[in-house]
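Worked example

This section walks through a single chain of length 492. The input is the sequence exactly as stored; nothing has been trimmed or padded.
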Amino acid sequence: MRALVFVDRPAAPLAPLDRQYAVGLLPVLDKPLVQYRLEELIAAGITECVFVLAEQAEKLEALLGAGERWGGRFRYALSRGAEAPSLVWPRISIGDEEPLLALRADLLVAPSVAGFLDRAQGLPGSVVVGAAADPRASLLLLRVGHPDAAALLDLLHWAAPAPPAAEQVVDLSGAALNLLESLQDYHRANRDLLAGRIPGLAVAGREVALGLTAGRRAAVAARSLKQGQAYVGENSRVSADAELLGEVVIARDVVVDRGATVADSLILPHSYIGELVEVTNAIVAHDHLIRVDTGAVLKVADAFLLGRLGGEAHAPEGPRLLDRVLGVLLLALSLPLWPLGLAAAALQSSGGGLWSRETLIGNRQPTLPGGVVAGSDAERAFLSWRLATSIPVLATLPRVLAVVRGDLRPVGVAPLTPQQAESRTEDWQRVRDDAPAGLIGPTQLTLNEDAPFDERLMSDAFYAGQRSNLGDLRWLWHGLLALFSRRAWQRA
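Given that input, the structure is written out below as tokens.
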């Protein structure tokens, strides 16, 4: 038996999430929605599937692949979104030599495929319908010798379902169903799945405490769950003094910072919840706060409240000619500071030398034999110097030379030592690698060098997710103003 799986409904009713997700890609308890139906089909022994896709078809195809991950064979057809299945059918070359099960996978329903096939086995006829509470969640079994499938498939038309006049009907109306027709539905689907209100669909992960489940490499303390139930997805980190209340679903690669409170909410992947921020009855998607009760969508401009943590990894950015020219200009402007730096180092060094060497990870990408561009931390490391003084602006003065050489950008994340880079064990700590290393930036200008390492990485991650050319110009201006601040000249 084969399956014809429709994952082509429009996502516009779920705006603003439609800009990032097709409906089938929406994470439900940290798993793409389409995967629930797919796993149900595989469990029922159906491994050959044709998926009908529309919006973000390339992302869905990349997720599902050719079927090897599930031990099946998959292929794809395209729809125009709200197009009737009867119009899509002629473009799908699928024979009638074996039974075909047609269904939708862009909704959430309690498992019913295996039970339907068992009950249909004893029924005669070439067409059997599994009638769900809503026609679009129904199952359509077409046996060998069935009549023309085109009109029958319109049972699954998202915009205007047309149930066929089938003689054989299996009642599936009792199965729990969520069509995800609104943001409220989507929010409820995650909470229902977490709370076990959808029979047959269980929460996967390790149990940290009663009611608290975590995915792989997730960091969350049992005491963070104050009441209710919570799920914390893969690679996510919840500060030990953050509070989770009610029914909370936190997807993968999320950080909930110190003192934050999350109640009855859904936090989507790569989102950051800032210190002391309270999120109640909402969906958070990066810098968007969506109130479930009112439908209001608030875009938060302050990345220290809500923000984006990386996403797709990028290759390290190499030096640019403009940056090196700017480095020469900065070096010229800094010349009056060098005698002060050397004098301060001489007074504080106590005969131990005026400077020390330090190895940092920069941006240059040397070409290895065979024309391969180096990209590892070790291959991008460079040697710099540090003046032996506790005055911050003077101690790091030699790093201006690294900008001239192209190892650092004028503006970027704080450069790490190889030891610091190696010590990072969680994926979120590498989000800052999406931005180049720089002489100045938010971390260098707003945090002390003795600030906790995780706090510095988090600051760099905000910059990596929010940076722009205009923003870099602002930070450059702040850096120049900082030369005249007390903090720059205050001994560390």
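What to look for: Residues 321-334 form the longest helix (14 residues).
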